[in-house]
Amino acid sequence: EGHIWIESEGLGKGCTAIFIVKLGIPGRLNESKLPIMPRMSTIHGQIAFPGLKVLVMDENGVSRMVTKGLLVHLGCDVTMVSSSDECLRVVSHEHKVVLMDVCVPGIDGYETAMRIHEKFTKHHERPLIVALTGNTDKVINENCMKVGMDGIVLKPVSLDKMRSVLSDLLEHQVPFEAI
């Protein structure tokens, strides 16, 4: 279990190979049953989130893959689903963050967020919920706040946007903000 990637600042400038592996003493890896808040680390001068379990819900396959690629680059352990129904079946206390498109067929992201709140009655067990949207409309922001979402990432997503929202949510537990 782990991640590997290569970073380069351009042609002829060299590159850095980075890998993250899970190490431990055999037989003692699963001793702790307490919830652990993920830690941020700095890799090659950039903030990363090794082992952060993230659930991504987006009906668009390309968007899902792009989001996953960015999160994996940041060290996250990513689960992907394509519908709200699937999201509600899969989400667990192990997921620390749920990134969801708010405009999906069937149960929309707002209703899904409310159902996640109902499923996790203890606040410390509930994953942080972040909306993914290409719409910068003020109504979208207000709706996200009303249903208890913890943040918004505006599409198209980028590594910097993703790093920023995760850093703010995990490090500072900032109030709702659109990035």
TrEMBL record:
GO terms for molecular function: ATP binding; ethylene binding; ethylene receptor activity; kinase activity; metal ion binding. This is Ethylene receptor 1. It comes from Durio zibethinus. The gene is ETR1. The keyword Phosphoprotein applies. InterPro entries: CheY-like_superfamily, Sig_transdc_resp-reg_receiver. Signal peptide: none annotated. Keywords: Phosphoprotein, Receptor. GO terms for cellular component: endoplasmic reticulum. The modification 4-aspartylphosphate is found at D101. Residues 53-170 form the Response regulatory domain. SUPFAM superfamilies: CheY-like. Pfam families: Response_reg. Gene3D superfamilies: 3.40.50.2300.
